[in-house]
Backbone:
């Protein structure tokens, strides 16, 4: 790890090697449009595709290059996590919505897989399953119960893996067993975005890079959307900015907290070592509050590991070293292996902690994916498009209801994140002690 202490790694995403993000050729904005979408990531493009195929004229406006945010910076794991357990969902939203939210997770994943297949999206997708590692015996029992529930209630192939059988799935002794669910896979996130962009452009969606939206004014018959590239009159507006929401929408900014998630990629490993450490080439997660997610690269030659960054500005080296230390703890065989890439992206957290569709002053929002946007962003984007097409639709998404509440004393700078991270670290220390570790 000597080289990495000297920043001898790339700070751009590993994914950009095969699918670099780039600006689109500049073109003039139209004078009028049916729907203006703010953000050209997974959610914005997914919505745009649905709308343009329904006969609407659609423009996607992105302040960066399309996909330059979380859509090309994530781990590419099709987890579709709901961060709240069933009891918490019931307490916050009621029994009916809680059940509907859980059921919709299965629909969202199936939508994603069908979308990839039907559109012919070349994004290295493989449904390899996900192994979740238990830190202690109590966690293992919880994972086993969850796997049993998934199998019985939703028909998802899922099963517990006792510690004695763990190395058949993952080459580590760190966990005390775990569980597997086979409906989860991995894809190349930057290729996935590039392919959605290709299909959207071919369908007639107008996509503009470097067109930051500065203001949206309500008019009698629509909206005036002011951007760095000019202004456009839109009959409807959909906002899909998620963790990259800025001061142009202060109301939304008070509700979406950008949290850094960082990923490191190792140098290429030998086939024998990869076969030892990741014999099934599965996606991986664990039960710690500040747990890690990790996976093999699509070509099966590297290991990528990600987790919460903890920093709020600049690009400090410590978060990279922290991830590498934890990778080495999982796999001691990697202690002398170098990191070639370390990068971060913003996930959007909010007080409801579930993906959301909501409306304010006629503007529809599809946002708040809480770190699981590979599954949720295309699904929520598509559901938001249906809402725009039919405001009176009966079969609304379970995620379509009131806006999340504002975060107190927050206006864009997450000053409280060090305290939040310290609290979760405290919980993880308690978890490890309870597990006798």
Residues:
């Amino acid at each position: 790890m000597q080289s990495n202490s000297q920043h001898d790694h790339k700070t751009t995403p590993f994914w950009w090697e095969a699918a670099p993000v780039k600006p689109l050729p500049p073109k003039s904005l139209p004078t009028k449009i049916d729907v203006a979408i703010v953000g050209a990531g997974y959610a914005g493009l997914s919505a745009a595709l649905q709308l343009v195929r329904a006969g609407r004229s659609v423009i996607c406006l992105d302040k960066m290059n399309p996909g330059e945010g979380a859509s090309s910076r994530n781990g590419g794991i099709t987890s579709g996590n709901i961060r709240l357990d069933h009891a918490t969902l019931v307490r916050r939203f009621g029994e009916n919505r809680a059940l509907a939210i859980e059921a919709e997770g299965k629909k969202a994943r199936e939508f994603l897989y069908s979308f990839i297949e039907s559109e012919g999206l070349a994004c290295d997708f493989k449904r390899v399953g996900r192994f979740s590692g238990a830190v202690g015996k109590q966690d293992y029992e919880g994972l086993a119960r969850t796997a049993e529930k998934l199998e019985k209630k939703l028909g998802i192939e899922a099963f517990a893996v006792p510690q004695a059988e763990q190395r058949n799935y993952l080459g580590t002794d760190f966990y005390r067993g775990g569980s597997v669910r086979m409906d989860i896979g991995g894809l190349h996130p930057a290729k996935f975005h590039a392919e959605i962009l290709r299909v959207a452009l071919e369908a007639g969606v107008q996509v503009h890079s470097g067109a930051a939206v500065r203001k949206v004014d309500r008019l009698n018959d629509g909206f005036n959307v002011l951007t760095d590239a000019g202004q456009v009159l839109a009959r409807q507006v959909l906002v899909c900015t998620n963790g990259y929401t800025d001061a142009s929408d202060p109301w939304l900014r008070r509700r979406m907290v950008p949290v850094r998630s960082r990923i490191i990629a190792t140098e290429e490993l030998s086939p024998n070592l990869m076969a030892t450490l990741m014999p099934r080439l599965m996606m991986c997660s664990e039960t710690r509050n500040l747990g890690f997610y990790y996976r093999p690269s699509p070509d099966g030659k590297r290991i990528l590991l990600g987790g919460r960054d903890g920093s709020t500005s600049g690009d400090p080296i410590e978060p990279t070293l922290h991830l590498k230390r934890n990778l080495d703890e999982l796999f001691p065989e990697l202690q002398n292996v170098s990191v070639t890439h370390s990068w971060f992206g913003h996930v959007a957290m909010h007080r409801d902690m579930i993906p959301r569709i909501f409306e304010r002053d006629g503007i529809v929002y599809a946002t708040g994916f809480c770190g699981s946007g590979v599954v949720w962003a295309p699904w929520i984007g598509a559901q938001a498009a249906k809402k725009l097409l039919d405001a009176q639709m009966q079969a609304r998404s379970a995620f379509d209801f009131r806006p999340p509440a504002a975060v107190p004393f927050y206006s864009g700078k997450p000053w409280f994140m060090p305290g939040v991270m310290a609290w979760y670290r405290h919980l993880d220390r308690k978890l490890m002690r309870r597990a006798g570790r």
